[in-house]
Amino acid sequence: PRFLLVFDFDETIINENSDDSIVRAAPGQALPEQIRQTFREGFYNEYMQRVLAYMGDQGVKMGDFKTVYENIPLSPGMPDLFQFLSKNHELFEIILISDANMFGIECSLRAAGFYSLFRKIFSNPSGFDKRGYFTLGPYHSHKCLDCPANMCKRKILTEYLAERAQEEVEFERVFYVGDGANDFCPSVTLTSADVAFPRKGYPMHRMTQEMEKKQPGAFRAAVVPWESAAEVARHLQELLKK
Question: Which CATH number does 3-15+74-241 carry?
Fold first, then answer.
């Protein structure tokens, strides 16, 4: 493959935040206030562990979660982008780095028919324990001050590129498609050959604009904002013609 394409999941591949979506499987499709109040900035993973424990107590089962994940809509234009990538799969190595969870991502991608596009998925470990409760863990620990305690996407991407280099796979370019603040962190490491595709009007987009204002040229990758992922497909198509 000539190119590495990195995707985020929530509000990038899918048009919702899947952690919010699963509340649809809770009684009354809502969480009690005392659980919602335990959320702390930077500790979302721990908060979700409490949410899932509550849902387990309420008798929400694996099948209920699966149904929700399978029905979350893809973002606008995402099927077009995935079809384009399927046709050109020999050129792109595709990975997914997400602060959601493995079970949910696999359910969604299999239901949409695009699971096989991804060489590797990096996300928080999740599964079902003996009681049938949905459990979630942190992905790793890191020293980055800008990222949530359980995941730094920059660390994951940097390690992945180093590992592929050791296997003698070097990419001409890296493309990064995301939306959140935690997608901004890895995109700062991109070079001038690479392209960042932030979703228009979302935190990653705003942060690239702010960085450009404060330190012109510090963000090295080309920035191509998108509202529909079909725009990402068109941009990649143009590059392939060159």
Answer: 3.40.50.1000
